[in-house]
Structure formats: structure tokens, C-alpha cells
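Please go through this protein, sequence plus C-alpha cells, and consider how the sequence yields the C-alpha cells. Keep your notes short.
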Amino acid sequence: MGKPDTSLNLGNTMEMHLPPDVYVVADAARLEGLEAAVAGILVGNSGHGLKTMTLPADAPVPDEAIRSARILVVEIDGASQRSLARVSQVRAIRPDLPLIVALEDASVSLVRMLVRQGVTDVAALPFDAEELFSQLLDADAQNASEVSGDLAPMMAVVGGSGGSGVTTAITHLGVALHEAMHGARVCIVDLDVQFGDVAAFLGQRPSLTVGDLLEAGDRLDSEYLRGAAKDSGKGGWFISAPGAIEPLESIDIDQLLKVLELVRREFDVVLLDLPANWTNWTLSAALACERIVLLTQQTIPSLRQARRMIDMFGSVGVARGGVQVVVNRAEKKLFQAIGVGEVAKALDHDVLAMLAADPQAIEVAQDQGDLAWEISRRCRYGADIRALAAMLVGQIGEGAA
């Protein structure tokens, strides 16, 4: 994670001042040039502090900078995919944050691509203090007219591999959270655009799906969203995956983030069911979440994949506390080869909860479009899901990690 270095006072002879919490994230050499320019032309002028953060151009932007910034300036290397991923990372966490990208020798096609991704402005490298100051004022003025409300907490439920029981878990968890939060409006968004089964598991067949929202373009608004969000009839809401299989690469990241932002404004808690395969847009969706619930099983292949996913999340700046490991289909036998302690040791990560293996109740429930506890009140899986929901409610109250 980057380290805050110094605060600069920017202003100009017209007695205009920067807004507070302007962050500039760039390589040390870029910041040295900026500091020298500021010192040379703005001596004696007062204004709010500009916070600089030293970081290589291909490293993820620190979460603290994204969440704290009123305006964010980020250096991008157009030849590096890891560096370009910074834009998606920022947009996933703060879709409306004014973002200025700093580039050197940018091509027209690259600038156009960045603008399509929602970049507010493009600054030239090396920095020109006067030009940057003007761009910051413009960005703040543009943002001043936009009214932003609080967004509901959002969690993704993901599996270490295909067939991890994610859809079963998320359909039960949505209802359990609704109950645990005394009727809170919990919405599951089924983003598994190829094999999503949330609607089927809840015994529903909606006419509008998440695919319609992603294709709505400028027609996307609260009313259109409410048409796609269906009451499960069991407690909570859901937005179904498309009826037809969609290519994973067909999803537009910007439109997806708009959909998720709108859902977070309409509901109290949002749960995401993501595909097993990771792409830029699925990672962007996961990065926008306060919590990631990672399901694994007590098998070597499942633990190996879960460990790889934990490492992947860490490489893009997800705090370890933001990933909650849950052992699914857990066997609590006396001589279980891989117990909870062994799972935690193998993953080098704490285990939050265990979900009992209860295949008979779950299979019957899925065939009927019911929940496991509707089939059997003594269902061990249902009791474990409700216990997990109670833990997550406590974390929601604590805020993001």
C-alpha cells in the first residue's frame, strides 16, 4: 500500500483555492517534479492541502486514497494493463469520484477509451502545476452540482471453484439477512450471466433480468430497476440472470457499475452472485463490495483454488479482513481428515463459519423452488446459514474493512 508523503499548498493569484482531500497518486519522480513546480510558482499562496502518495504506476491505488479523496489524480501507464486496471478499480469503489488520469504521450484512442470508462479529465505528464490546478477546479465545479447519497453495503459470494454451492448459499443468505435485519430490503443480483440459477432456486421466472438492465443504456433508472427486482416471496428481493447464455466478454463495465450503484441506492443490502470465471468486470464488481464471502470445501483441490483467490484479491488491494472464508458442505466427523484448523492453516486465513452438508434437504428444496428450512425445520444447513447471517450483520454494523 502506498504511503502518504507530503502536503502541498496550492492556490493562485486570483485567490482561488483547491477543495480539501485532493489526492495525487504517482511515481516518486512525477511527484518531485510537481513539488518543484508548485514551489516555484505558488510561494506564499494559501489553500487546502494537496495530498501526494508515492506508488509505482502499475500498483493498485490504495483503498484509503479512493475512499477519502474528493478528487483523485492517478498516474497511468498506457502500455501496462495492470496500470490501466487502476481506472476500473477506482470506478468499482467510487463510481462518482472525480478522477483525473495523468498520462505521458497518450494516443487519441487511449484517451477516448478512458473517457468511455468515466474518467473526468486527462492531465499531461510531467505535471504542469498551473494546468493541473485549473483541471482540479473544473472537476470540483462539475462535481458540485451532483447530489450523492449513501450507498447500501454490498457483498459478493464467490466459490473457490465451480460447483461450490454459491447459488444455494446466496439464496438462503439473502432471506436470512432479511430476517436478521428485521425486514431490511436485501437484494440478490445474479451476475452469473451464463449459468445463473437464483430465480430457479427461488421458484420464480421473472420477465426482466440483469441482462435487460445492462442493455438499457440511458433508459436505466429507478423505475426500470424496480421492474427487474422481484420479491422472492420468502423474504428479500432478487434480480435474475439473463434467460439466454451471454458471453462473459459482452458485459460493459461502466454500465454494470451504474446498475450496481442504482441497486445500492434502492435497497438496504446487496448480494452479488458472480460467475466462477474471473474477468475484468467480475473483479470490478468484487472490488466494489465491502465484503467478499469465499466458499471453500474440505478438499485439497478446493483449498488450493481458494488460496489462489485470496492471493488474487490481495494483489488488487482487497484487505484480508474484507475476505470472509466459509467452509461449505462441512463434515464434522471425529476423524475428519481436514478439519477447520487445517483449513485455516492451509489458507493462512481465519475461517468465519461452517455450513453443514445437508444434501437431501437441499436437493429436495431446489427441485421445488423452496429453501432448505421450508423442507425441514431441523435442517442443519439452514441453522448454519442463519448463524452466518448474524455474523455478517455484525460486520455490516462495523463498516467496511
The two ends are 15 Å apart (CA to CA). The chain has a mean pLDDT of 84. The longest helix spans residues 380-398. The longest strand covers residues 323-330.
